[in-house]
Amino acid sequence: MYFVRVNMTDRTYQVTEVPEKYKYFAGRALTSNVVADEVPPLCHPLGPNNKLVFSAGFVTGTSAPTAARISVGGKSPLTGGIKEANAGTSWGADLANMQIRGLIIEGQPKEKDQFWGLHITWDGKPKVEFFDATPYTKQPLSAVYPPIYEKFGDRVSVCSVGAAAEYGYSNSGVCFNDQSKRPSRYAGRGGLGAVMASKGLKFIVLDRQGAPGVEIADKALFEEGRKKMIDALRTHAITKPKGGLNSYGTAILINIMNEAGGLPTKNFTSGRFEEAPKIAGEAIFETNKDRKGKEIFNHACSPGCIIQCSNTVYAEDGSEITSCLEYESAWSLGANLGISNLDDLAMLNQLCNDYGLDTIETGTTLGVAMEAGVIPFGDSKAAINLVHEMGKGTTLGRILGAGTETTGRVYGITRVPTVKGQSIPAYEPRAVKGIGITYATSTMGADHTAGYTIAPEILGVMGKVDPLSPEGKAALSRAFQATTAFIDSSGHCLFIAFAILDIASGYQGMIEEINGVLGTNWTADDVVKFGAEVLKVERKFNEAAGITKAADRLPEFMKQEPLPPHNTVFDVPDEALDAVFAEL
Amino acid sequence: MYFVRVNMTDRTYQVTEVPEKYKYFAGRALTSNVVADEVPPLCHPLGPNNKLVFSAGFVTGTSAPTAARISVGGKSPLTGGIKEANAGTSWGADLANMQIRGLIIEGQPKEKDQFWGLHITWDGKPKVEFFDATPYTKQPLSAVYPPIYEKFGDRVSVCSVGAAAEYGYSNSGVCFNDQSKRPSRYAGRGGLGAVMASKGLKFIVLDRQGAPGVEIADKALFEEGRKKMIDALRTHAITKPKGGLNSYGTAILINIMNEAGGLPTKNFTSGRFEEAPKIAGEAIFETNKDRKGKEIFNHACSPGCIIQCSNTVYAEDGSEITSCLEYESAWSLGANLGISNLDDLAMLNQLCNDYGLDTIETGTTLGVAMEAGVIPFGDSKAAINLVHEMGKGTTLGRILGAGTETTGRVYGITRVPTVKGQSIPAYEPRAVKGIGITYATSTMGADHTAGYTIAPEILGVMGKVDPLSPEGKAALSRAFQATTAFIDSSGHCLFIAFAILDIASGYQGMIEEINGVLGTNWTADDVVKFGAEVLKVERKFNEAAGITKAADRLPEFMKQEPLPPHNTVFDVPDEALDAVFAEL
Predict the structure, then answer these.
(1) Domain spans, chain B
(2) DSSP tag of B518
(3) Complex prediction ipTM
(4) DSSP letter at A256?
(5) B283 — pLDDT class (breaks 50, 70, 90)
(6) Whole-number Å distance between alpha carbons of B52 and B296
(7) Run of H or E residues at B371
(8) Predicted TM-score (pTM) above 0.90
(9) Rounded to whole angstroms, how far apart are CA atoms B533 and B21?
(10) Which CATH superfamily includes the segment(s) A2-206?
(11) Closest partner CB to B548 (pick from A399, A416, A548)
(12) Could you tell me how far CA A95 lies from the centroid of its own chain?
């Protein structure tokens, strides 16, 4: 396996063997360790000393199911701390098949407004060529992917950044192609798109032709694990074919969270949105049927996925508006803005994909802008205009592009739903206490994927616990955060958790897959230890960057404003929050 | 002495005796202790739980010379930490004469866009009445002071906030009248204006008629000290009548700092500005003479000042453009922007006074905006337009009003001269190392007044030390910071330091004045101890607010970009920075 280091200051690169220290790291474990080892914690995130690190997971690129995740790491311009964001895409599988364990982008060119692309091919080992990407800038990504595919061939995978990143927005993601060559799968959170663009880098095109693929140390063990994993995913009600996620996509959660009173509405002033059913997964499914959309059941974001939860939203004439409209996006751009027009909501989502914006951060930013009176709540056409402002880099667009916290500061708003500078996603912590602990304490800023306690608190995975109670939730969040750090390193999609937490053989299968690939003898204990070590490394970086436990807190208003319909505040004591990492 | 607590939630007030704990606190010591005791460190600075605290110094309101300082404290919207900013004004003397040791503004009204004024009179004890101040909003302060004086009489003193504060800008100061009823003396740094406005408070009018004045425990001792202080101030070259400050104002430093290569120019890309002489104190003096301005020699900002360093800048026709154009303002709005047109520079200063903006933060913000290409360096007319945008609350104006760091973030700029969110003032730390240590470690964010090592490093006060050397500067900054915290509590203007650090009897005089007022037996050792305790209280608040030693650093670019003409970087080791407070 290789480390490929690309120096954007002088446009050179180096290919080396993976250093000994990193031999048993991949995905998030790899990106976070490289960032911790090599990035000065106090560097400017958009300056020459930050680095952008790509790594696929241990089993990415193999035949393991639902395992095409690519991790992207660096110092975040949004949080000022360490960041790992991941996405499911053939790009991850291709990177792994080219045996690139770490792709590390360093330095910064002197010239501004000139952008480059990398074309990485296999020539006995990875080979990097640079191409001028400036002609592709300041356009919607859906307009530039076709010519890129034309230039490099249908079999390549494409990573890119959009206009948002070119403008240096703290809200800008790193984009990857889906199975239909759409620029739609995002390592979205934390502004790593701007880090990539700050290095003058617009595209990374992978052509895996001739590459040897992922080496597997113990094929029989791997195969055994893989089968267990497949069985678990095919059995569990949430993950099985034509199950919850496959039929309705992640937006199936809209009605569920609304029912639970935990669907943040109109900039976190209520936990219930009257018009929620209009933007729910069920509504998307029925609307697509009515409109005779090409795909009614959902598709896979990346090769080898069993869950296949990515939807497409079609217009009245049956043409595609966007793919994929996730729960978090339907929430942030819908309920959180008081918007229930599904077509406009889908368009908002598509604009985020085209401009390279994180949908969650965009929606929460517009929520704060609405609270500031920039546009009214519920005005979907005005919201579309605001996202266009962001995409055009206007003065107003730049404010919004800087994210929710900055927008709150610019408009002097106090109800600003952020932790460590990153906005709170689609699950109200006043109604679901465990997820609030994850938001508060995650090394990533507010992030549901960092420790998805929604599984037990709302979905009854591992048995149901009371979402409104703070009891025992610190331990729950801690366990989820550690396990998640491992899953994020495995290459599997986090959604395997639904199946493997309920079906023990699935969990065992995950471990066997990885032991098969690496030739290790890891146990279930090692999973948690490994994850905890990743968290500790991230935590240490954050401390050196000036982020302490005082930042492990939800915003003041959530402790003081009762949230309808339960009329509860976030009442987890600070001591419980501090215990999450103290007892790790 | 009294504590007056005004609750803006329900517009009530309470007058009590000063609590025992605060009996020997005044000025900064009082505001910082009340904030530390009563304000939750993680509260939103513009929310109902922040407080705004006013306190005059120990000898303010007495006949002690150069001692009319008023301290304003609270949690800063700019730094997120504790803030004390002070100004020289009759308002401070009046507050002290009304025996109000602490005026504490609490709570927040539900209605937005409605503003109130307080009219505080003496009726056997302090009496507070509320008046509707909404009609005075969104206007230049120079337009609203005359009707306020008309309404309440010529003898009142007036504290106010301008439009910048009404808009909630993190760059907005608390304004006080000068001796000619101008709204021109600012507790400017850190955004406390927005805190005041967030409480629905626009004015605090003091009418001291009938008030008993400051009680003096030992009049003979006080008188002895006062005479020593007067002698020192009248003797020292910098502070004496027709001396440096009286003749040329603080802007005398323009040529001195330029000569030293430490005048930050064009957003901190050089330490020397070719056109510096055009905006220097000498130029102001000569121009005023040519233009037959009313006051050629400078005037006092507040009653009883010997130094009298406040200048006025006159237009060609002899009419007044602004007062006072300080060194830091002439630098921030001049050299830092590449602007040398004195009339336009004076107009920029006046607009800041009228809109309620801190001149330092405004200039550094415009510097970053110029670097971002919003307007060109050196374009003074365009700069004037930008300040008008701020005053009007336009979209662009709001970005700039949020301060330098936010503007940098919005435009994706990496050369952003801030520490703890507050911009670096008029002395280049790469050319003057000691002041860089003060910027880095001050509890206030970058602040030259927190520990003015310029006195020895540039002006030779206490003997000259090499500004370019980092040696011994941590100890120097520490000593200055502690002594300053005491002076900021004494009620004296910081400029007494020039005289009392060179003339031992002056230093003794300061202590005797205070012992005379309080009936204490404090010694020179107690001065440093007292100051150190204030710093520790502030530091503790900041730590609880999430500000740690990782924030005690200058921005990355100052450690990496050599600054012409000396081509030096800021090379004080982190260990020396950490030692400032570790050894306090």
Answers:
(1) 2-206, 250-297+310-427, 428-494+519-584
(2) H
(3) 0.97
(4) H
(5) very high
(6) 37
(7) helix B359-371
(8) yes
(9) 14
(10) Aldehyde ferredoxin oxidoreductase, N-terminal domain (3.60.9.10)
(11) A548
(12) 18
